[in-house]
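User: Here's a chain of 257 residues. Predict its fold as tokens.
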Amino acid sequence: MRIPWATLVLTVAVLAVYFFSSSGNLYPDSSLVGQHAYGASNPLALIFSLFFHIGARHLVSNLLPLVAFCFLLEMSLPSRHAFLVFFASGILSAFVFSILNPSSFLVGASAGVAGLMTAGALLRPKWGVLVLIAVPFVLGVVALPLVDWAASASFSALGVKTSELRVEADRLQAAGQTQAAASVRAQAEAINATLAQQESVRAQEAVATPDEIVHLVGALAGVLYVLVFFRDKMRDGFEELFAWFSALLPRRVNGSS
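Assistant: Prediction complete.
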């Protein structure tokens, strides 16, 4: 079995961009969104915006289907085609978005993921049906609840740490250690500022709305890629799907008296 390079590279790229944009925290700095989001006024962010995500739920919601459907596509085609589908879908969707929404900005891998979903499902429809069922289930039941739990735990830990440092600063101040108290208090305020920033970004993520036109264009790009270049493979995949469904259907056996 060949190594799924596209799946590995795209996954690492998405995670690396998120890690550096969030400085190791659960949520990125909101000021970076305007710098790295794609829009008519920021065309240089076209490629980078495909890997930038505004929050942990946004990240996980794109990352899980990216891994699943990119791998599915690489089961049928060499890795270069998965890269081409991802970037073609993402770039075409971004152009359409900037024309329809010249004053808005776009971030996230969802358009590229939409292309991978349709291309992978068309080439391996039997597995595509299963993945289309499994991915939303895992997201809704496992992944997103874990993200919400991690966010609550992270915010709680930051709040506790802030309180502990403030108590320590008060103790040092009462003991006459003014300089040490000021240093500890500065640490407490820095952590509190991080907490406020993280809560603010989470709130922004909660009200951000997906653009269905972007997803539709990305999905159509994946469909067109398969129809133009791999129609025979798609036909073979659907024949496999029909054979699979036929095997699942009950059979009538003629008996003899």
